[in-house]
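This section describes the prediction task in plain terms. A model, or a person checking by hand, is given the sequence of a single protein chain and must write out its three-dimensional structure as a string of tokens. No templates, partner chains or ligands are provided. The sample shown here is typical of the held-out split.
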Amino acid sequence: MYVVELSLKLSPMPVAVQRKELNDAQALYNQVRQVLEGDGPRLLELTCEKEEEKRITLLCSEVVAVQLYEKSAMGSGGKRPGFSFDS
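The expected answer:
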């Protein structure tokens, strides 16, 4: 399972979407990157793979960062996702 996590302006909590396949997660990550570069649409709609009726729409100008990581990396007690100075 892969997680695509978006950080939003003035929001302490990120928005995260899970994808089963790496290719699907990378495609979503690239879509959000295009939004960050200003080449995408004004609104970004994210859906749930398991329950497709679950949706969230974000204003693209509010997205400030995106990261992609494997979910199993979180539960192992190892390093947390993202970049940090801790070893």
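For orientation: The mean pLDDT is 84.
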